[in-house]
Design a protein that fits this description.
By secondary structure, the chain is an alpha/beta fold. Helices cover about 45% and strands about 20% of the residues. The chain has eleven helices and eight strands. The chain has an eight-stranded mixed sheet with strand order 1-2-4-3-5-6-7-8, sandwiched between helices. It is globular and about 45 Å long.
Length: about 260
């Protein structure tokens, strides 16, 4: 279904019953990035998945986006669905939105899972993301497809799981260029590291051992700035650890949620 809020339409799906849990996907994906998590979550939780602004079937207005704007989108979505409290699982961009939301809207997250994400932009962020935007604008999303898959998955997985490459590749290709471009600008400016200690809910940090985009050292920096948080490094996984090592990811996620729910 689609919810109108904050000047756009947000596409979302709800499955299961129990306490709310919200899943927030990576740049250039959509809510189906979480398909491998649904079977283990929907029997215990009421699962909300949504397409972030600029992605999937949600509106993709032109122009630069901000993480604060994306957090406001989520607040509008929660208000429309009468969600007063929810667990949050965010991967990459979804983790950045989650951090921003938790700092702006206190008391809504019962727990926060930050997977393969970062809280501080690297020095070359604006140049790096600017180059990717330029390629996408010149060649369409096909221009960034191969390099994105190479960053997101280890080489053995890419070579042996052509089905997964086709599935995730289709999500990349279907992302509107305006949405990709706007979101790239937003995540190039992430800067929450010094404020993370303000987050009060339980936090679980997950990262693929071979994630070069948001590497384990960034996950450790988040962990060090969040007293009481938990950290897991998943072996044989790159950026989309929930896809590449879904069994490990799901076991760790459900164990954490059982402790905090």
């Amino acid at each position: 279904m689609k919810i109108k809020t904050n000047g756009i339409e947000i596409n979302c799906e709800i499955e299961g019953s129990g306490p709310w849990i919200t899943l927030s996907h990576s740049l250039a994906c959509n809510l189906h990035m979480w398909d491998a998590q649904m079977d283990v979550l929907k029997h215990t939780f009421k699962v909300l998945r949504f397409d972030t602004r600029g992605h999937g079937q949600s509106s993709a207005p032109p122009g630069d986006y901000t993480l604060e704007q994306m957090a406001d989108d989520v607040k509008g979505l929660f208000d429309a669905l009468d969600i007063e409290q929810t667990h949050w699982v965010g991967l990459s961009m979804g983790g950045m939105i989650g951090q921003t939301f938790a700092l702006k809207y206190r008391g809504i997250f019962q727990s926060l899972v930050l997977a393969d994400t970062t809280s501080r932009r690297p020095p070359n962020a604006e140049q790096m993301w600017g180059e990717r935007v330029a390629i996408a604008r010149a060649k369409g999303m096909a221009g960034v497809l191969d390099s994105t898959l190479a960053r997101w998955f280890t080489e053995p997985y890419r070579n042996t799981r052509k089905d997964a490459m086709a599935r995730i590749g289709a999500q990349i290709l279907s992302t509107p260029v305006d949405g990709f471009s706007g979101a790239c600008i937003a995540i190039s400016k992430v800067n929450t590291l010094d404020r993370l200690k303000e987050i009060q809910c339980p936090v679980f940090i997950i990262v693929g051992e071979e994630d070069h985009g948001t590497p384990p050292e960034m996950a450790r920096a988040i962990h060090e700035n969040l007293p009481g948080s938990e950290l897991l490094v998943i072996k044989s996984a790159a950026h989309l650890s929930n896809v590449e090592q879904s069994d490990q990811f799901n076991r760790a996620l459900t164990a954490f949620l059982a402790r905090v729910n």
